[in-house]
Amino acid sequence: MIEIITNINNAVNGVVWGTFGIALLLIAGIVMTIVNKGFQFTRIGHWMKLTIGAIFKDKHVTKHTEKDNKAISQFQSLCTALAATIGTGNIVGVATAIVLGGPGAIFWMWIMAIFGMMTNYSENVLGIYFRRKGENGEWHGGAMYYLKDGLGGYKGCKQIGVVLAVLFSCFCLLASFGIGNMSQVNSIAGNMSSAFHIPAWGTGIGLVILSSIVILGGLKRVAAVTEKLVPFMAILYIIGALIVIIIHGSAIPAAFASIFKGAFSAKSATGGVVGYGLQLAITWGFKRGAFSNEAGLGSSVMVHSSSNVKEPVRQGMWGIFEVFADTIVVCTLTALVVLTSGLVDLGTGTMISENVKSALVGEAFGTVFGSVGPMFIAIAILLFAYSTVLGWSHYGTTAWGYLFGDKSSVIYKVVFVVMIFFGCTMSLDLAWDLSDTFNGLMMIPNLIGVLALCPLVAKITKNYIDRKIHNKDVEPMLSVFPEDNKEEE
Length: 489
Fold this sequence. Notes:
This protein is mainly α and 489 residues long.
């Protein structure tokens, strides 16, 4: 039975994350870039000013809502979204891309991220525009809502929208136990055991206790934790990575040269058929980019939609920054740590080290920090993976609430927390494969909705630019619901 499930899963996974799925993600990013007139390029100063710049200058971005207000701040929504996206993929995924696709894979990872910025932007714009308040007073938004009310609003598409919304929610619910829970905590338990000799059951009990306190407290408590955890873990990792890169600074030009050379190399570092090297670099670069920032999967929009912001484009810009921070910053630093540490022959792109995944990055840190290097990576994976668990707990809760109602969401949360213990103590090879599949299956209904609604996203974007940049007196487009279509005071 397990063999049959594995074979079916491998077939589905091959379609979802093969040429078709990756091409669909890239096409969506290109289309959304075109219809929004290259917003991530032409308005780079504007979205930088209103995201990273606003964190330090605009108190409304970081200000918490009142106790009885279930919405969260813009900064909290970003941190909770980053909690789910900045995960083991930023360490393990990047190392895997370099081992299997060569240094050139990093270039194609950048390309996927650059276009993915606009896919994530579009998801967040639609998320705010179609969101609604749930039974518990929290804002609920995501692909299921713009599929049902957006795509379903087109003539003859009502049933299609409803079915796709339910499918997306089911895929999200299943993925939350896999990619968002068991696979993450299993990585934590493995690293804690190898680095600090802590038994898997001990890690499991500790994570269950911590998670019960946070997750059962609802979104505002999750957001309160992530807004402290995410900046801390990101800054800690960035500082550690920069130290390694600076000490190996003389290798930086060669590292970038190997990335650009490898991106267009027709032959792989291990030889073989001409053109195979280019195929590997593109495939692994695109895959790791998509897995890392999750742009196009419709996941992070579920927490971005809980923000207290009213402008869809304003939250859309946080989506651009999310992809920028996750892939262009954190993943690039991981790549440079590996490439500048002498573990790869930068002339040919051939691996010198025999290590793979987190062990490869740990070895790279070890060239500067010695035996502390692998321990540093173990701690980084603990923080990255656990933050992913917190972020995905909200995604699963949102999907559960859509399917079964908010009042029963405590059932999902309890099961989610219990599964953390089993994730730490079980062998999860099949769970990893299944979670990848369900995670990828979320992409298909989501991108159908995003592409179908691209004229609306372009219209909302133009409306924002006319009002906020060109100072034109036009009616705002803030929500599909008339009562919410009023500007912030």
